[in-house]
Write a structure and sequence with these properties.
Elements: E1 3-12, E2 16-20, E3 27-37, E4 45-51, E5 54-61, E6 64-66, E7 71-72, E8 79-83, E9 92-102
Antiparallel strand pairs: 1-9, 2-8, 3-6, 3-7, 3-9, 4-5, 4-8
């Protein structure tokens, strides 16, 4: 049986990291995710999807990014999405992630 969850994070000119904590022997599946800034940036910033500490997907974003598919984490690992700081005073970065946990 799967248990659904949602995580979110934000930061004003700071790194924003949404994490779903590790669960012993259980596997997390990220089914949907987005990252965005409150204003378009002139220089692209990095967004990373992680399985534990391992980067499994990374891309650049100037305003909005969406997860292109499903990411399945390793058993017992946390999953997270990390959005780099905007580099611009007052610009907020936001990350939203939803998924499910299975045995």
């Amino acid at each position: 049986m799967a248990r659904e969850w949602n995580e979110k994070a934000s930061g004003t000119n700071a790194t924003a990291t949404a994490t779903h904590a590790a669960s012993t022997v259980r596997r997390h599946r990220i089914k949907g995710a987005s990252a965005s800034y409150s204003a378009a940036l002139s220089t692209p910033k990095l967004v990373q999807v992680k399985d534990g500490t391992t980067v499994v997907l990374e891309d650049y974003v100037t305003e909005r990014w969406e997860l292109p598919g499903t990411i399945v984490g390793s058993p017992g690992n946390a999953v997270s999405i990390v959005l780099a700081a905007s580099g611009t005073a007052g610009v907020v970065g936001k990350v939203n992630m939803n998924g499910e946990t299975t045995v």
